[in-house]
Amino acid sequence: QSANIGVVGLAVMGSNLARNLASREGNTVAVFNRSRSKTDELVADHPEAGFVPAFSYEEFAATLAKPRTAIIMVKAGGPTDAVIDSLVEVFEAGDIIVDGGNALFTDTIRREKAVRETGINFVGAGISGGEEGALLGPSIMPGGSDESWVTLGPILKSIAAVAEGEPCVTHVGHDGAGHFVKMVHNGIEYADMQLIAEAYDLIRRGTGKTPAEIADVFAEWNTGELESYLIEITAEVLRQIDAETGKPLVDVILDQAGAKGTGAWTVQTALSLGVPVSGIAEATFARSLSSHPEQRAVSRDLPGAEEELTVDDVDAFIEDVRLALYASKIVAYSQGFDEIRAGAAEYDWTIDLGAVSKIWRAGCIIRAQFLNRIADAYDAEPGLPVLLTAPYFVEALGRAQGAWRRIVSTAAGAGIPAPAFSSSLSYYDGLRAERLPAALVQGQRDFFGAHTYKRIDKEGTFHTLWSGDRTEIEAEDTH
Ligand code: 6PG
């Protein structure tokens, strides 16, 4: 029996993806796992899938029709390299190896280059949507060659989530482009989650509402412009009661947020590209801050705000928080798309930003109504330099900015941390500024390091003789 697609790595994500593939018309799925028991279990539990089990790489290769196509679903890093090496041994030129894990895009670039030498295609594909998405329809962000897309495109389209009739998969760009875009997706996910958490914290501290009552607020928000998967699940988490203590679950979960690294990659990459993804960075740092109990313990008695947060008009306050969240969310997405734009320029990828926003409309963790507006913005102006300057967002930000400013100053006044809200607002005001104090920074740099500066009134590069007579000379540009 010949399979048209294979899956290597049958942990939850891998087996769900294999089941998803098998459930679609026309697919016969070969499955292989390093330890045999997982394969046996999957095949026994899902006779309806008609899986073709393989127990060695040779057998796996033999069951696949040409061009052989295999999706690897194992841990990023060493385990992925090991599987790739094994597949390269048994595959032939023209075959396709897909890495569906959360690989670092530079690893994907390296792997693609190495595998290409053998004539085999290597595709790094970001897959979002967690376990449920893998089973029912994820959002898929494949990179790799055009040749591989010919075979892979229809297969991935068959299993992807569908948004308004369109499958949530597109050939993002060559080599590491898919994993790059998935990385930024996760960075935006971090920012979105942190913003929601800050909104929850402000409402709780400001109004004394219980988590269950705040769940109702989020459920209500989910019927409007904030409609999204993350808002929806937030309501569910807040409503959950711990069986053991009878308390809201959110009150018994340790307040130290974990991270597997994709948020940090997004920030590290943005730093090297010189892209200010401040909302994503603050969200990532907020997780780090939360995870240092020893530092938090010694800091607990630091002097705080003189006055507690008091809210007179609860409904108006909640509406302010909603608008602050919406505005900050626009900033986070704008920054994320800016990073994709910069990454594409740096790595020579042609990435259609509108297409990326469309494949995030369903299946993935950041799926939201809002992504249609981003798609519209790029449809109207594909080269839009700053997403938040699109007319729809300008209107939304104009409507929200009063509330946004009130919430950031209220939080600061009451000593409530709101790093993502406030950094987003600062970014917005920084972009808007007619003049920035960067001029002074340039002056300081020139003073201590002769780093030179440019002038607003004439061409050229200049240096002031700070330790001499302080006249200005023309200088070599040293940046
Ligand atoms: C997705 C998620 C998925 C995973 C993250 C969680 O798109 O399906 O982003 O990739 O849940 O890796 O990341 P952290 O563990 O870093 O929060």
UniProtKB/TrEMBL annotation:
<feature type="binding site">
    <location>
        <begin position="74"/>
        <end position="76"/>
    </location>
    <ligand>
        <name>NADP(+)</name>
    </ligand>
</feature>
<dbReference type="InterPro" id="IPR013328">
    <property type="entry name" value="6PGD_dom2"/>
</dbReference>
<protein>
    <recommendedName>
        <fullName>6-phosphogluconate dehydrogenase, decarboxylating</fullName>
        <ecNumber>1.1.1.44</ecNumber>
    </recommendedName>
</protein>
<comment type="similarity">
    <text>Belongs to the 6-phosphogluconate dehydrogenase family.</text>
</comment>
<dbReference type="GO" id="GO:0004616">
    <property type="term" value="F:phosphogluconate dehydrogenase (decarboxylating) activity"/>
</dbReference>
<dbReference type="GO" id="GO:0019521">
    <property type="term" value="P:D-gluconate metabolic process"/>
</dbReference>
<comment type="pathway">
    <text>Carbohydrate degradation; pentose phosphate pathway; D-ribulose 5-phosphate from D-glucose 6-phosphate (oxidative stage): step 3/3.</text>
</comment>
<feature type="binding site" description="in other chain">
    <location>
        <position position="102"/>
    </location>
    <ligand>
        <name>substrate</name>
    </ligand>
</feature>
<feature type="active site" description="Proton acceptor">
    <location>
        <position position="182"/>
    </location>
</feature>
<dbReference type="Pfam" id="PF00393">
    <property type="entry name" value="6PGD"/>
</dbReference>
<dbReference type="InterPro" id="IPR006115">
    <property type="entry name" value="6PGDH_NADP-bd"/>
</dbReference>
<comment type="function">
    <text>Catalyzes the oxidative decarboxylation of 6-phosphogluconate to ribulose 5-phosphate and CO(2), with concomitant reduction of NADP to NADPH.</text>
</comment>
<feature type="binding site">
    <location>
        <begin position="9"/>
        <end position="14"/>
    </location>
    <ligand>
        <name>NADP(+)</name>
    </ligand>
</feature>
<dbReference type="InterPro" id="IPR006113">
    <property type="entry name" value="6PGDH_Gnd/GntZ"/>
</dbReference>
<feature type="binding site" description="in other chain">
    <location>
        <position position="260"/>
    </location>
    <ligand>
        <name>substrate</name>
    </ligand>
</feature>
<dbReference type="GO" id="GO:0006098">
    <property type="term" value="P:pentose-phosphate shunt"/>
</dbReference>
<feature type="binding site" description="in other chain">
    <location>
        <position position="287"/>
    </location>
    <ligand>
        <name>substrate</name>
    </ligand>
</feature>
<feature type="binding site" description="in other chain">
    <location>
        <begin position="128"/>
        <end position="130"/>
    </location>
    <ligand>
        <name>substrate</name>
    </ligand>
</feature>
<keyword id="KW-0560">Oxidoreductase</keyword>
<feature type="binding site" description="in other chain">
    <location>
        <begin position="185"/>
        <end position="186"/>
    </location>
    <ligand>
        <name>substrate</name>
    </ligand>
</feature>
<dbReference type="Pfam" id="PF03446">
    <property type="entry name" value="NAD_binding_2"/>
</dbReference>
<feature type="active site" description="Proton donor">
    <location>
        <position position="189"/>
    </location>
</feature>
<keyword id="KW-0311">Gluconate utilization</keyword>
<dbReference type="GO" id="GO:0050661">
    <property type="term" value="F:NADP binding"/>
</dbReference>
<dbReference type="InterPro" id="IPR006183">
    <property type="entry name" value="Pgluconate_DH"/>
</dbReference>
<comment type="subunit">
    <text>Homodimer.</text>
</comment>
<feature type="binding site">
    <location>
        <position position="445"/>
    </location>
    <ligand>
        <name>substrate</name>
    </ligand>
</feature>
<feature type="binding site">
    <location>
        <position position="102"/>
    </location>
    <ligand>
        <name>NADP(+)</name>
    </ligand>
</feature>
<feature type="binding site" description="in other chain">
    <location>
        <position position="190"/>
    </location>
    <ligand>
        <name>substrate</name>
    </ligand>
</feature>
<dbReference type="InterPro" id="IPR006114">
    <property type="entry name" value="6PGDH_C"/>
</dbReference>
<dbReference type="InterPro" id="IPR008927">
    <property type="entry name" value="6-PGluconate_DH-like_C_sf"/>
</dbReference>
<feature type="binding site">
    <location>
        <position position="451"/>
    </location>
    <ligand>
        <name>substrate</name>
    </ligand>
</feature>
<keyword id="KW-0521">NADP</keyword>
<dbReference type="InterPro" id="IPR036291">
    <property type="entry name" value="NAD(P)-bd_dom_sf"/>
</dbReference>
<feature type="binding site">
    <location>
        <begin position="33"/>
        <end position="35"/>
    </location>
    <ligand>
        <name>NADP(+)</name>
    </ligand>
</feature>
<feature type="domain" description="6-phosphogluconate dehydrogenase C-terminal">
    <location>
        <begin position="178"/>
        <end position="467"/>
    </location>
</feature>
<keyword id="KW-0570">Pentose shunt</keyword>
